[in-house]
Amino acid sequence: MLDKLKAFIRKLYKYILKTFKDRKNKAPSYIARTFCIGFMCGISPLFGQSLICFILWCIIDRFFKLRFNLIIACLLTFISNPLTTPIMFYIFYLTGQFMLGQSAIPFSAFTNEIKILITEEFSLAHIMSTISTLLKGVGKPIILGNLPWTIFVGFLGYYIGYRLSIKLRKKRNMKKKHRIRRMINFFKHQK
Known about the structure:
The model has no long low-confidence stretch (mean pLDDT 84). The chain is an all-alpha fold and 191 residues long. The chain has helices at 2-21, 28-42, 49-64, 70-76, 85-100, 107-118, 124-136, 139-190.
């Protein structure tokens, strides 16, 4: 099982590197858009961030004719995971409370309020009551506080993707120049 996981991670890593090195993806904006969309969907307070990423991919490709790599963008949504989500949601909550001009509850009280909503049974009535409770309680500040963070992380993702693309392009060009230089030296010594 562990070997299969290692093989999968190796294939995924090779796919990502291949995507960055691919000639058709040579525009830095392609990689930058991928990072931007992936990070923006990744910090969404809604569940199903990869689905949100897919919907954005369909809309952006269809109406704006701008492309980005859906698989890598979906992988980048994992910046929010079970370890980072509570902290991110609390930061969104604090930002939302600040924007509303209200005082915030401490982190321990915040986690207790979220645990109460999650630990009950799973049914349609529970989902509806949870959504209602969230919108009355901590949900509104979380959604409101997420908006400036989404914009900031989107710009940050675009910048990181653009810089990474430029760096990889320079590295590829240096390797190409070095290879050409070695070939020229080889043929000079053959004469």
